[in-house]
Amino acid sequence: MSSTTHSTDATASPVIAGLLLAAGGGRRLGGRPKALLPYRGRPLVENAVRVLREAGCGPLHVVLGASAAEVRERADLSGCVVVDNPDWAQGMGSSLRVGLASLAGTGAGAALVSLVDQPGIGPSAVARVLAAYRSPASLAAASYGGERGHPVLFGADRWADIAATATGDKGARVHLTDHADELTLVECGDIAEAFDIDTPPDLARLA
Q: How many structural domains are present in the chain?
């Protein structure tokens, strides 16, 4: 694994890692892993990586689970650190935990957490959330018409608590609820659509 040395100059841009959760097995899609759903001629996971990269995230860590070997073979994840989650079937919380653990030692001041199955969220929305970073204690999330959604930015000071409370499909919900008064909502409804690809009818959105 290659490493990058980042400047510690106070005027340098903060290092904000992109953490893409792409481990889902697509149970309601007949067991088709979401990372490999076709989107604009390529696997969906490639679009999600492109969005994070164009928004300015770096380094990029991608958590795989269902059909991980096939995803590695078929998707171009060059430039990313690929993290395997053998417990992906336990829910999003397990992917969030292993993803945050993989960021130890990267020097990142925050992680921008994104989901693979939300192609309606582009680089502009991600960049807005990134701009909410102030310190390793930062906590920010995109909102759509005032409703909290993804992506979510977690300052590094919060990672331990998030990992300790992320269970099942709750993800970081417990931490976000417990620290709601510290959360900055960043309205993105004017430039993005926060739909998920969960069921067969949703596949029409990938056309």
A: 1
